[in-house]
Automatic annotation (TrEMBL), chain A:
UniProtKB keywords: Lyase
Family annotation (SMART domains): OMPdecase
Record protein name field: Orotidine 5'-phosphate decarboxylase domain-containing protein
Gene Ontology molecular-function annotations: 3-dehydro-L-gulonate-6-phosphate decarboxylase activity; orotidine-5'-phosphate decarboxylase activity
Protein's UniProt keywords contain Lyase: yes
InterPro entries, A to Z: Aldolase_TIM (IPR013785), OMPdeCOase_dom (IPR001754), RibuloseP-bd_barrel (IPR011060)
Organism annotation: Candidatus Falkowbacteria bacterium RIFOXYA2_FULL_38_12
From TrEMBL, chain B:
Single GO term (MF): 3-dehydro-L-gulonate-6-phosphate decarboxylase activity
Keyword terms: Lyase
Protein name stated in the entry: Orotidine 5'-phosphate decarboxylase domain-containing protein
GO biological process per UniProt: 'de novo' pyrimidine nucleobase biosynthetic process; L-ascorbic acid catabolic process
Orotidine 5'-phosphate decarboxylase domain span: 9-213
InterPro entries named in the record: Aldolase_TIM, OMPdeCOase_dom, RibuloseP-bd_barrel
Species, as recorded: Candidatus Falkowbacteria bacterium RIFOXYA2_FULL_38_12
Length: 199, 219
């Protein structure tokens, strides 16, 4: 997949949760090496850890493997999220809080000691088959209005139309995966279209 | 379900490195009542290799739990864990209901036990009621971070009877205990499985003796 993607700093590679559970931190290091080689600079890799407990130890392991950012579930105990954000700062990587299955991401953010760098808004993949559940675009401006510094990442989109809509709604990062998985060439094309249209 | 309803089990969680896992496994007494858990940190560091390595260190009959704490893509993770040799896998109770349902289905298909981890859930019964099928095991829990930073959060023993009262086929696993006293208290409160990890975190003579005490004192 990486060999098909156009080299650009604006393309972020994510080591997905199943990928990490399959290959461990070695998987992260490999992605980092391959993508950095292609882009020609130290590339940005997200480790989608979905931390639920032990905020500290998981962050350390992924940062050492070369990740630039890592994720924690918004559904985790507040103590875990606080510890996660603190450890991300200490390890110099970006903290991402994944708001999957949370109706009001706001309520979580209000309870935290410090804000994360990025909030991930989301339909789960399994949920996706339930068509009544939509990507919560209206949350973007609400969160940005209250917390100006937080970047918003939107996951769960699959087409260039989804991606365009995401940016139109003020998101900073759009996460795509399904078309990658089913058809890598289609994905490469999507990435190229993205580079052309989103600036 | 692979586990037996009338037996009491001790689950030893392995969380640091495979080297330490090996030392701990070799100190443990051999018994079908001692279950081995490939902990979440171990899985995230080594991937499914953690499970196959632990399988290689133990006998074929040893019951291995993959604590993958699935939050999405239920089916995919179950297949990975089962193929690597796990006898049970875990899914978060806070995950979308669609994920938990597909996780339980897939566990049945791969003939492994399904465990739902109720960490950070006030009322586990509310989750169980929404599911299409009930899981084999429910895990009640203090998170490690929670118990470290907030001493007043207790293991929710009263929930054991609540759940068993409504679903008598579900086994209850209580995680978060660290001493033989806590293990005894959990069993006294009708837990089927007690998960220990602190004493097992680093190899020590305490490791084997806690497991031996468990086998001797708890039948």
């Amino acid at each position: 997949m990486i060999s098909l993607l156009p080299p650009s700093e604006k393309i972020i590679i994510e080591a997905g949760t199943p990928f990490i559970k399959q290959y461990g931190v070695n998987g992260i290091s490999s992605l980092k090496a391959w993508w950095s080689q292609k882009v020609g600079i130290s590339s940005y890799i997200v480790a989608d850890l979905k931390t639920m407990d032990r905020g500290g130890s998981e962050v350390r392991a992924t940062a050492m493997a070369g990740a630039s950012a890592t994720t924690c579930l918004g559904l985790a105990p507040i103590e875990t999220i606080d510890e996660f954000i603190k450890k991300c700062e200490a390890s110099n990587i970006d903290s991402m809080i994944d708001m999957m299955n949370i109706t009001f991401p706001f309520e979580i953010l209000q309870k935290l000691k410090k804000l994360p760098n990025i909030v991930v808004l989301h339909r789960g993949v399994d949920e996706n088959n339930n068509k009544s559940k939509k990507i919560p675009h209206e949350q973007i401006n609400r969160i940005k209005g209250a917390y100006g510094n937080i970047l918003i990442s939107i996951a769960g989109g699959e087409t260039i139309r989804d991606v365009t809509r995401t940016f139109f709604n003020n998101a900073d990062i759009a996460v795509v995966w399904r078309s990658f998985y089913e058809n890598p060439k289609e994905t490469a094309r999507l990435a190229e279209e993205f580079l052309k249209s989103a600036r | 379900m692979i586990l037996e309803r009338r037996k009491k089990y001790l689950q030893v969680a392995l969380n640091s490195t495979l080297g330490e896992a090996r030392e701990i496994i070799f100190q443990l007494p051999i018994s079908e009542r001692i279950l081995i858990e490939a902990g979440t940190p171990l899985l995230k560091i080594y991937g499914t290799e953690a499970i196959s390595e632990i399988r290689a260190m133990t006998s074929d009959s040893t019951y291995i739990i993959a604590d993958n704490k699935c939050a999405d893509l239920g089916a995919r993770e179950v297949e990975m864990m089962a193929t690597a040799g796990a006898n049970a896998a875990t899914c978060l109770g806070v995950a979308p209901i669609e994920t938990i349902d597909s996780f339980i289905d897939e566990c049945k298909k791969f003939k492994i036990d399904s465990m739902i981890d109720m960490m950070n859930i006030e009322n586990p019964l509310m989750i169980l009621r929404k599911l299409k099928k009930i899981p084999d095991v429910v895990i009640l829990h203090r998170g490690v971070d929670e118990s470290e930073f907030k001493k007043e959060k207790q293991i929710p023993y009263y929930q054991i009877k609540q759940i068993k009262g409504s679903y008598n086929n579900i086994l209850i696993s209580v995680a978060g205990g660290d001493t033989i006293r806590e293990v005894q208290r959990a069993i006294f409160n009708e837990a089927n499985i007690v998960v220990v990890w602190k004493n097992f975190y680093r190899p020590s003579t305490e490791t084997a003796s806690l497991a031996e005490e468990f086998l001797k004192n708890i039948k």
